[in-house]
Amino acid sequence: MSEDNKLLTIGQFAALHGINKKTLMWYDEIGLFKPAAINPENGYRCYSYHQSPILETILLLRELDVSVAETQDFMQHRSAENLKNLLDQKITELDLQLMHLQAVRKTVSNHRQNMETLLTMDLSKISIVEKEKRCLVTVDIDPDITFEKEVELITAQTSKYQLGRLHDASYGSIIPVESIQKRDYANYTKLFIEIPFLEHKKGLHIQPGGKYLRAFHKGDWGKIPLRYWEILDYARREGLTLCGYSYEKGINETVIDRVEDYIIQIEIPLASH
Q: What is the pLDDT of residue 237?
């Protein structure tokens, strides 16, 4: 018998493909993948090396979460066209999964960065940071809008951009720098939602890249004007020009129980001179 025709035991064939021999037994029982021969003396299953590509195709489809029924159907109608169509479908699904995993990774990285900031920051410090341009989904608000209406608007936007869960995004509020300079600290004009990997589309708010003034406020929201006074004073002393909007977001909601411990990160763009 030539090496090409030599049969392998079920254990040898399973080991060759890195699977359990019980998997091969099950595939045989359901008619998905039959052995090349049955030993007439002991009834043991035997396999040919030339069956390897077929088994590897089945294992690939199973790894791609193709159901047993779909795999059986493909094996009964095996062709280059059918395999291409099936793999095209799975590539599309994998691309969507990769996009989701990338978004999850960015969300987790943002949370981790917030925790790093919490552990290392000086709440009293005002600093200058460099930020990349971001696309934000925004909801227009005014002092007369109810909390229930705000929730309704945010829900509509998250649905529009197919945001699966609230933790997949960052949330905050926007107040014009002009309002801060006029001491109009209640003039919040927008709520923002930052969704990972959001492409630039018409209607989105563009938070510009560049240098930003960053500060933090802890505790009572009613005292945030005091922090803005300190920010404006710092900018005057340092000869800095604030522009655009102030972007506020909480950075420690996940690790506190009391509103008194709530920390708001404030970031305001600096005009280039």
A: 96
